[in-house]
Each structure stands twice: as C-alpha cells, then as structure tokens.
Description:
Helices cover 26% and strands 21% of the residues. It has helices at 123-132, 145-148, 173-180, 182-196, 210-218, 240-248, 268-280, 310-316, 373-377, 384-392, 396-401, 412-416, 423-435; strands spanning 4-5, 25-27, 33-37, 47-48, 55-56, 61-64, 73-74, 79-88, 94-102, 159-164, 200-206, 225-231, 263-267, 286-292, 300-305, 324-329, 336-337, 351-356.
Amino acid sequence: MGRKSTFQSGVHPDDAKKLTAASPIRRLPFPEEVVLPLQQHTGAPAQLMVRVGDHVERGDMIGAAQGFISSPIHASAAGRIVAIGPWPHPSGQFQEAVRIRVDRYAAQIPRRRLVPDYENLSREKLVAAVKEAGVVGLGGAAFPAHVKLSPPPDQAIDTLLVNGCECEPYLTSDHRVMVEYSERVYLGIRIMLRCLGIRRAVVGIELNKPDAIEAMRAALPTDLDIEVRTLEAKYPQGAEKMLIKSLLNREVPSGGLPGKVGVVVQNVGSVATLAEVFETGLPLIERIVTVTGPGVREPGNWIVPVGTRLRDLLAGSGGLAEDASEIIFGGPMMGLAVASLDTPVLKGTSGVLVLSQEETPSKTVYACIRCGRCLDACPIFLNPQRLGKLAMNERWPEMVDHHLMDCMLCGCCSYECPSNIPLSQLFAMAKTALRR
Length: 436
Ligand code: SF4
Ligand code: SF4
C-alpha cells in the first residue's frame, strides 16, 4: 500500500465499519412524501419559488440561491406540493420546508435537460453550472461547491485534495463510492481541475479501506497529474486541516481556510455527485446514505431522494431493533441525535446511526482530574480542559481568546475524557451563544 501519511494527536476509536463496508449501494423505492428544507447548506437559505398545490417534476427548482454563498434546492421526486412551513430539521430546530406528496403513478423520469459539455465550457460557465445544480459538500457541512471552485484572485491554488478518508466510525458511503464509482470520481476530479485551472490532485484514503485504494488505483487516469496516497486510519484524519497537513505538510493558519495554503479540499462523494451533473444534466436530488448501527435490523448503503424522512429510511432498512435507543444523523463523533422520525435526509446527510441501549448508557460526569488526556488528543493543540472550565462558567468571550473559533468540534477531547465531561458539546453551545 506504500507509505502512510498522518498528523499528530487525534484518537483511534473502533471504526465499526464492518456492518456496511461490503454492502453494495442499493436504491430504496420512492417514499410517499419528501420534505425539502430551504436551509440545507452553509450560507443563506434558498428562496422559495413554489406554492402549495403546484405540481413539480423531478429536478425542478423549488428554491433559488440567495446570493453567492447559497445553493438552490430542487424537487427530488415528481408530485404535488402539499405544505410549506416549519418542519423538524437535523440541526434540532424547526426550519421552513417544502413537503411534496410523491405521485405514485409518475415514472419519476426527469424533464429532458441540456447536459453541460464540460470540455467546451469556460471556467466561469462550468462553475455556474455547478451552482445551478445545487452541488454542495456531501461530507457534512454542505458548503456550496461553486464557492470552493471560485477562489479569490489572491489565493494561488495549486492542488485539489480529494478526501477519501471517511474517518467517522460506522460510515461507509464514501468508501462504497470509491469501490463502485471510481471512474465517476475521476470524471469529477477532471471537471474540478478545469474549474480551478490547475493540473494536480491528490486523493487521500485511509488504510482501513484496501478495496477502495485498489479500485481507485486501478482506475487512475494516465493523462492527469493525480496521485492516490494512503493515510493512517485515525480520527479526524478527514478534517480539512489534518488532511492538508498529512498529505502536503502545509499548515492552515488559525482562522484561515485551505485556500490560504493553495489548496481546495472536496470529499469523494461530492466529487462523484458533481460528475453526475455533467453526465446526466440532473441537479443534486439524491444521495447515498449509510444506515447502520446495532439498533437497525438491515444496515446498508442506500441511494435515496434528498428529503426522504427518517421513518421511511428506517422502514427500508428493516426497521428498528428492539433495543434501539438513540438515532444520530452522521457518525458517533460529530453527528447530532435527532428526536423526530420525520426529520428528512439533507444533501449533507452521509449516514444515520442507530445505537442500542448497551451503547448509550447514561454516564455520570465527574470533576476534571487534570489528567491532560484532552490536550494530548486535540489535533489542533487547543487546551480543551481550560476551554471546558470557561464554558461551564459561561465565560464565552474569554473562550475566544483561547481560540474557541478554531475548534472544529471533532469530539476527540470528549472521547478521551475519563471524567465524561462533554467538552465538545460545551464548545458547540459556546459557539452558538457567541453567534447570538
Ligand atoms: S472538539 Fe475542539 S477542543 Fe476538542 S479535540 Fe476537537 S478541536 Fe480540540
Ligand atoms: S481529559 Fe477530562 S479530566 Fe482530563 S484534563 Fe481534560 S477535561 Fe480534565
């Protein structure tokens, strides 16, 4: 497998991927209803373009991007709009959402549309096509892809890093994309390189995915400067700053973005989705979701329309096991527990994890014993113990002086803390309080 790259600190949780790592991607039948929140991405929510009673076809735009850092939303199924209003969102809040009653007799064949000819479009038109298609990062934060592909003129980008780490335990959707759709990933890389006007890409894959490494190396195009590099399986290897350090030995400065060191990072799922836009002309209306954990009967990797409700996703996965206890959107380290089975899959939902009672015992929180394990674990060398103390006393502004805003809420400190202090949750609360 060659040399492995890595970064300092971080943690080694059980990757728990065997439940679904070998499960081929399968398509679930269309649900009776899809629910599409207008806020599914970093930036301004999409602006509503439809009314209750409207009929929509699969791929029709229902929400337009509002400004540069925003993204449009498209109907993920043909049907009738039955309601528009607040709806449970994976963030835990209620958000404005469009509910579409899926037409059960429709063939679900999208309207004929022009497939953008990426080889003959200018860079500006390529980026505009990416924006129009509503492509965002599929790894979680859902940052609009067209923004990453339009770096400001003072940033000299030289490398595209393609993140194939999927370092969150349990999740395997990116893993399966690399195994099953490696050529599509390379088409996406080819298009992104054209958008950025550069030639070099590096794909980073953790060593716990040997079949993905093999598939990606076997499909490697010979006419582009692309390298597939292996990385130590360690959490959070896939965090942008860690990946850049591991693969290129460049350090993104505090408060800075990857563009500062000449890099654009995109995960493999997003790259493959971008390629699909240029293969089919269809916008981002479906995605691959890993449904996994001991609390679900038939774990698997499913293609579903964006907006599929949790209850339909779980029903397609054989339902909940008897001892199911907690449902998390995302992985166990950074995911968020959800309280409603009506919560929909968003563009950024890479997985749904159902834990059992055995895995979710209530833990007593003890006082800090100043063991320093959280300091050793923090990949960006913050002082979580100090930050935790400030958070418990609601001393938010002082937390900023201790670089709270650099904290990526990775959860390594909480994972290591023998006193069960929910450090990263406290930091998330502090960030919310400061934003307010
Ligand atoms: S959650 Fe923040 S403080 Fe804790 S380890 Fe991660 S980056 Fe460091
Ligand atoms: S790991 Fe927990 S107990 Fe140890 S220093 Fe950090 S906060 Fe304190």
